[in-house]
């Protein structure tokens, strides 16, 4: 079965392509390489022994998307990762985010709506919950007003898919709300490749450990948490990739109970920024240079998932601990710096 993975050269996309190929799917990747490189394909081949089809294509070019689906009419499912994801940049350039993340989603859904049967997996985020009132966060927690255009594109994306599925019987979709993805493939053939200064905690830590950054700034230690730093649910990227394959199979095998479903994908465990630093120090044997600075505007205090729905309905559970995921992130950082 042929599966289209948009953004398949990116961090989560490339790990998902590996899991799809390991499960016997034929994969075609579309990526515009705006935040990735074609070398990632070599890493995928090194792990799986198979080169996925790849087309460098910008999903904003509607006629090219139409042409792609004409040439690949045997695509039965789409996993849609391609999107811009920098929160700060989205505040500066909202239209870029609405065009990249919403415009392209509409084009894809239009194409899939014309098929008799299509399965669609959407890359959503726990950002839709904002600061949830209760922990752990279940899928029933209310969606809070978005803090940024980026967050808004995830909320709007979910609504657009839900509205489309309602009136398109052949279209089945699942939105996966990721918590905080981290780590790299255990082979160290693929991993996270942030361009410029990393915005996310784990790549900033590993780059500091590797000497690329002088010091990590810990954004605030006066939050109402046990040690005063923010708490997040760090999910290993390979576990997350596997959740996509399981969700896709659920749709392909018609096991879904509704034609639009939503699942949290996290570990169910919250870790503070200081605990993440401790994990790095433990697995690397290095002391991390960090200092406490002011809070980062827009950060929420605590977010960790209730994973009961994914565990019971999808039959998926995260397998890796924070230390194991951190070890893989550190191994990867050392490999790309060597
Ligand atoms: C961020 C995005 C979220 C997105 C997710 C994708 C924001 C406000 N939210 O989540 O919408 O879905 O990335 O991965 O940007 N931290 C530091 N020092 C740093 C970097 C981070 O102390 O240099 C802290 C943050 O304050 C936070 C935690 O580490 O408490 C995790 O931060 P980050 O990796 O940026 O993820 P989120 O903010 O949770």
From TrEMBL:
Cofactors demanded by this protein: NAD(+)
Superkingdom: Bacteria
Biological process according to GO: galactose metabolic process
UniProt-listed CDD domains: UDP_G4E_1_SDR_e
Pfam families cross-referenced by the UniProt entry: GDP_Man_Dehyd
Reactions it catalyzes: UDP-alpha-D-glucose = UDP-alpha-D-galactose
Pathway annotation: Carbohydrate metabolism; galactose metabolism
Protein EC: 5.1.3.2
Enzyme class: isomerase
Record domain NAD(P)-binding: where: 4-327
GO cellular component entries: cytosol
GO terms for MF: UDP-glucose 4-epimerase activity
Keywords attached to this entry: Carbohydrate metabolism, Isomerase, NAD
Protein family membership: Belongs to the NAD(P)-dependent epimerase/dehydratase family.
PANTHER family xrefs: UDP-GLUCOSE 4-EPIMERASE (PTHR43725)
NCBIfam families named in the record: galE (TIGR01179)
Subunit structure: Homodimer.
Protein name stated in the entry: UDP-glucose 4-epimerase
Native species: Kriegella aquimaris
